[in-house]
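Hi V.,

Quick status before I head out on leave. The structure for the redesign project is tokenized and pasted below; the design run finished overnight.
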């Protein structure tokens, strides 16, 4: 985790410029897709909020957002952005989703944009998200699915990750991602691709809206 945080801290300063240069429409589409599931009374958790590219625009649609990321450089940029834009209902912190201070059944909505593919054990992460959601709570995710756009980059990714140049990235198909979310006891409400790659260097980005069933058990 420390090595991966070094990576994110290193790219934090230029993250917004590089992301907006290629993915501005994707971020906008993520915001549009997510906001219809949000309510003014919602208490939300934004897991791996990064520099707040989606956190800050979505803050106006909920009562409060707890925004967490393990990169202190990313959080610092996100805080400044929120202050500049007057988004005062966001509580930013350097934290992991498994920290004990986050109590079960605490959140109406949990957002996890562009993060699930960085976990070797996504089932464990999904179980934690399920536990943190209230009964009937909403889980919103957008995930790069590299196996949908096979290329030389896809083939060399595991090696580059093992060398520590980039973080580990799990390569999903749309069907595989939907399956693990469903197997995590979520009811899928919507699933769609938000991004058609213009080349072989990027991946489709799959948006999934899901719900924790009202009768779901955390046991």
């Amino acid at each position: 985790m420390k090595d991966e945080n070094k990576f994110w801290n290193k790219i934090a300063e230029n993250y917004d410029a590089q992301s907006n240069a290629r993915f501005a429409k994707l971020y906008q589409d993520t915001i549009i897709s997510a906001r219809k599931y949000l309510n003014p009374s919602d208490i939300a958790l934004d897991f791996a909020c990064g520099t707040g590219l989606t956190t800050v625009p979505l803050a106006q649609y909920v009562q409060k957002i707890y925004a967490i990321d393990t990169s202190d450089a990313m959080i610092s940029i996100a805080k400044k952005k929120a202050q500049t834009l007057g988004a005062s209902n966001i509580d930013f912190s350097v934290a992991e989703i498994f920290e004990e201070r986050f109590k079960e059944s605490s959140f109406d909505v949990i957002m996890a944009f562009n993060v699930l593919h960085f976990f070797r054990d996504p089932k464990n992460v999904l179980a934690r998200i399920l536990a943190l959601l209230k009964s009937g709570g909403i889980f919103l995710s957008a995930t790069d699915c590299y196996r949908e756009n096979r290329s030389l980059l896809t083939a060399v990714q595991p090696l580059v990750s093992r060398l520590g140049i980039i973080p580990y990235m799990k390569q999903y198909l749309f069907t595989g991602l939907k399956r693990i979310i469903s197997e995590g006891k979520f009811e899928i409400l919507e699933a769609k691709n938000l991004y058609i790659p213009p080349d072989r260097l990027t991946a489709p980005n799959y948006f999934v809206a899901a719900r924790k069933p009202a009768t779901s058990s955390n046991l």
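Above is the designed sequence. The two ends are 28 Å apart (CA to CA).

G. will cover questions while I'm gone.

Best,
W.
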